[in-house]
Amino acid sequence: MSATQKVQQHPAFQQAQDKANYYVSQLDKELTKYPLLNTFEQRTQVPKSYAFLGALVLLIVLHSINAFASPISNLLGWALPAYLSVKALETPGHNDDVQWLTYWVVFGFFNFTESFALRAVLYYFPWYFACKTLFILYLQLPAFRGAEKVYSAVVRPVFVSLDRNAGPQASASADSLRERVAAASE
Length: 186
Fold this sequence. Notes:
InterPro entries: TB2_DP1_HVA22. It is found in: Membrane. The protein is an all-alpha fold. The chain has a domain at about 65-185. About 90% of the residues lie in helices and about 0% in strands. The chain contains 8 helices and no strands. Helix 5 packs across helix 7. The longest helix is centred in the middle third of the chain and has 43 residues, at about 50-90. It starts with a helix and ends with a helix.
């Protein structure tokens, strides 16, 4: 008999399981009063009590994470990318350099724009920092290539627009800077 089977057959485990099943059935009876939850259960085949408990746990997790999320999101947005950026600079290829340079541009742009509207955002969006942490992970993880997507869709159009509005002299100095950077990297 395995350890899992021993635990499942223990009287205390059986009693706790019976009590949990009783409370879930009582919750299911209460939730039957709400037609929206009944429809949800019929369409998804997920018991409404489990969906309700899952949503409740999700809210508790988001709220708990949000309490510490500001420093965590800033640390997560800086520590690992800084380490990987230094590591990328030490490798001979340039693909990882581009990935992390793009990340830093998007991260900086995001933090700069965040600084203007943070109070309003926090007022209307209570789990902002928890969502920001997920957004930062999206930007960092190579499977998503989020920094490249956000750069192409948001940051680059803003900078191209600003570059056009600055006039031909700014465009010429930007071209000159690009040439000097290209020559230095060779």
